[in-house]
Amino acid sequence: MLHLDDDAVATALDWPGLVSALRAGFRNGAESPPRPHYSVKVPGERDATLLLMPAWTTGGHIGLKTVTVFPDNGRRALPAVSSHYLLMSARDGRIVASLEAGELTSRRTAAASALASSYLSRPDACSLLIVGAGRMAPNLALAHASVRPIESVQIWARDMAKADQLARQLEGMGLKAAAVSALETAVSNADIISCATLSEEPLVLGEWLRPGCHLDLVGAFTPSMREADDAALRRASVFVDTHAGATTEAGEIVQALASGALAVGDIRGDLFDLASGRVEGRHSKDEITLFKSVGCSLEDLVAAELCFERSVGAPT
Hints:
37% of the residues lie in helices and 23% in strands. It is an alpha/beta fold. The strands form two sheets. Strands 9-8-7-10-11-14-12-13 form an eight-stranded parallel beta sheet, sandwiched between helices. A six-stranded mixed beta sheet has the order 1-6-5-4-3-2.
């Protein structure tokens, strides 16, 4: 059985290839049932979360990702999220590969945002703001830069030292980057705003969004979390990765539905709709667009299959 660590996964998943594979995956579809998630008590800390994410294609592969989220792991200098992936044959059930899923998850999530951006952001979008400086942040910057002509990246984080460190990292990867301390100013000047935090209070306010911008919300993955307020959803054309996941798990969507700021019918489409052409993306240069993702097991399966095929040299 093949085993791929995070370094091998990163090597296999270049941004253009992964975005292209996800585009085909959402166009073709797969069995991707809603993920069960369980709350796990942690003494003296916030509750942890256990997620199970299966997906499969007929005659192709079955994939299963296990994810644990321990939001207070920073106290132990450990990552908040840990995950692993099993890839199995959908013809005979044998396990063909196991993958460390940290880089797999980060890259497929960032590539899904880039895929959405290819439909929703302005083709000439050149300024990017990253909100948050965790593991997702560099991948989001690189993924967005693979589909749009990004000339400058700004990073805002509660910890300015981490924002500075990320800016230096991105500079080393060929992107012009700088840390910023004034979030409102940075949001109001950005063509694309990409958020990846564990915030439970809105960070980006709708009144800050300038005409023509695209807001990419990645971090809030439970109903109690959110990175943007109701005003942002009212002002924007709203798209999601999947309707089922967003309307039950995405904090911004769930809370806006509860407050009446958003109706289910206001959600213009998901990645299945966009990739298949059933729904048009951006309509005009001044339209504000918003993409909310909570993750989809189809994305993991597509990424794991691409890793496996590139590692063994041919699909099985």
